[in-house]
Design brief:
The chain is mainly beta. The protein has two helices and eight strands. It is elongated and about 55 Å long.
Length: about 160
């Protein structure tokens, strides 16, 4: 099996385990005569390991013919805001001392090689969850990123 086929299979397998986001809404940014318009999409997902934390992501979505067929590569522009929507409950699987964080959301933003990810970090000293969104490629990612923090209030311990 070639390296390219292995990477494609691995990408498909790992993307199937990701949390699914629910589209909240969108706005058009560029009119396209053929195919859907370019737009900014707002999506929401719940942290799978933290009860009552919801993250909202806004991201660019490429339209046109390639975008309509799912062949376009979306830009790396995204923003994130995570909110406490009830009493926060951390599961035992949260890596409380892990400096590299845990991926809690992943969405494909090109046919195969590019994805938007959200990684959760736990700041033990400040008792806060930090969510970092960024875009990466197999070969070359983007330094564009966004950050959101959710303090875990003392009454939630």
């Amino acid at each position: 099996m070639t390296m390219k086929k292995l990477l494609i299979i691995t990408s498909v397998i790992f993307s199937s385990f990701a949390v699914q986001a629910e589209e909240v809404g969108s706005v058009d940014t560029v009119f396209k005569i053929l195919g859907p318009d370019h737009k900014i999409v707002v999506e929401a997902f719940d942290d799978p390991d933290v009860k009552n934390v919801t993250c909202y992501i806004s991201r660019a979505k490429t339209g046109g013919i390639k975008g309509g067929l799912g062949l376009a590569e979306d830009t790396s522009d995204a923003a994130i805001s995570c909110q406490q929507v009830g009493p926060v409950e951390l599961s035992d699987s949260i890596a409380r001392n892990k400096s590299e964080g845990e991926v809690v959301f992943r969405k494909r933003t090109s046919l195969v090689f590019k994805k938007l990810q959200v990684v959760r970090f736990y700041d033990k000293k400040r008792n806060t969850l930090i969510y970092l969104s960024y875009s990466d490629k197999i070969v070359n990612g983007s330094p564009k990123n966004a950050l959101s923090a959710v303090p875990i209030m003392p009454w939630n311990k």
